[in-house]
Amino acid sequence: MIRATKYEGEKHKHNLDDYIRCYTEAYNDLADIGKPVDEEDKIEFFLKNIEDPNLRPVIESLQLLDTHKTFPSVSHYILL
Known about the structure:
By secondary structure, this protein is mainly α. The protein has four helices and no strands. The protein has one domain (20-79). The radius of gyration is 12 Å and the shape is globular.
């Protein structure tokens, strides 16, 4: 089981790059042991755990997009 890590903004001890890296590594580790996570589930779990109010508009916009999203593309938009 992977313990959820939440990103709470600048007050959090990890920066956003570290947060994304942790999720990427966890998803890769699961795939390596034959338990890959569905792309939509990756994105949903990742976005759900970002609690920085400054990122809410970006997250809501991403959730409304009706295009194929991948975890790398979503994490890229979050970093912009």
